[in-house]
Amino acid sequence: MHYRPSLRHFLPLSLLLLLLAAFTGPTAPPRKLRLYLIGDSTIAQKVRQTFPETGWGMPLSTFFDTTVVVDNRAQNGRSTRTFLAENRWQHVVDALQPGDYVLMQFGHNDESEAHPDRYTSPQDYRRNLLKFVQETRAKRAYPVLITPVTRRKFKDGRQQETHAPYSAATTELARAQQVPLIDLDRMSRALLQQFGEENSKLLFLQLAPGDHPNYPYGRNDNTHFSELGARKMAQLVVGEIRAQQLPGLSDHLAQPLPKNAVPPTPAGKDAQPTTP
């Protein structure tokens, strides 16, 4: 005789499975790592009315895969002092989670003695950076110090150093606190020298009258970047993230689509399509 289990034999197992489902629920997706950017207008998001001015934080997200969220909190005109005074830093601290990153680059407005509302001495600048570092670490997140990106300033064909006291303070603090340092000041000066005095204008907001409706009279700006300049500065930052093997970031850099990872063939103008 074959044994036929009845419904009552299945009932306890069914109830157990229902209870397990009720208590466990669907598996939550893994939390994405957030990469916070704090700093000034050389990094910040720009509004449509200032295009083609571009902060180097704007293209940064395209260098990472979808597990990393770039949260750009940089603001035009801010120094370390005003970023703190306006409570902008506290909002970042409150949002930080273990494993997040904070990339910090100031200096342009800290050094502006002509604007006492934002000027910060090198000593106070260092003290403010130290606060950012310590409070980031207190949340078990990772601080990264970045020296201020250079302004375009050539003399006798050589790009000049434009942030010496503030870059030195950033470098010294990174060494003293054993914080990863991205020396963007040095690297960006080398990049401008590579482009040369005339061609380096392509990296900045350099417009002739009539070039763009946002600037009908043109613009001769050696501080803020064009789209090309912002992408080149972002590339320098990403190159250092890769070289220093920053945990959680260097292993989540974006990978190309398979067809874009193949060297282009010389035949035909459409041999290397870029659409998915």
Characteristic key phrases:
single chain, 276 residues, alpha/beta, five-stranded parallel β-sheet, 14% strand, globular
List the helices and strands and how they pair.
Layout: H1 7-24, E1 33-39, E2 68-72, H2 80-85, H3 88-95, E3 101-105, H4 122-138, E4 142-146, E5 154-155, E6 158-159, H5 164-177, E7 181-182, H6 184-195, E8 204-207, E9 219-225, H7 227-243
Parallel strand pairs: 1-2, 1-3, 3-4, 4-7
Antiparallel strand pairs: 5-6, 8-9
Helix pairs in contact: 4-5
Radius of gyration from the alpha-carbon trace, in angstroms: 25 Å
Largest sheet: 5 strands, parallel
Low-pLDDT segments, ≥5 res: none
Tell me the strand percentage band.
Answer: 5-15%
Number of helices: 7
Q: What is the CATH class?
A: Alpha Beta
Which structural class fits the helix and strand makeup? Answer: alpha/beta
The CATH architecture name reads 3-Layer(aba) Sandwich
Question: What is the terminal-to-terminal distance?
Answer: 62 Å
Shape: globular
Report the strand count: 9
Number of domains: 1
- Order of SSEs: HEEHHEHEEEHEHEEH
CATH topology: Rossmann fold
Range of helix content: 25-40%
Question: What's the rounded overall pLDDT mean?
Answer: 88
Brief description of this entry?
The protein is α/β, with parallel strands linked by helices.
Description:
This protein is an alpha/beta fold. It has a single domain, classed as Rossmann fold (3-Layer(aba) Sandwich), CATH 3.40.50. The chain contains 7 helices and 9 strands, in the order αββααβαβββαβαββα. The protein has helices spanning 7-24, 80-85, 88-95, 122-138, 164-177, 184-195, 227-243; strands at 33-39, 68-72, 101-105, 142-146, 154-155, 158-159, 181-182, 204-207, 219-225. The strands form 3 sheets. A 5-stranded parallel beta sheet has the order 2-1-3-4-7, sandwiched between helices. Strands 5-6 form a two-stranded antiparallel sheet. A two-stranded antiparallel ribbon has the order 8-9.
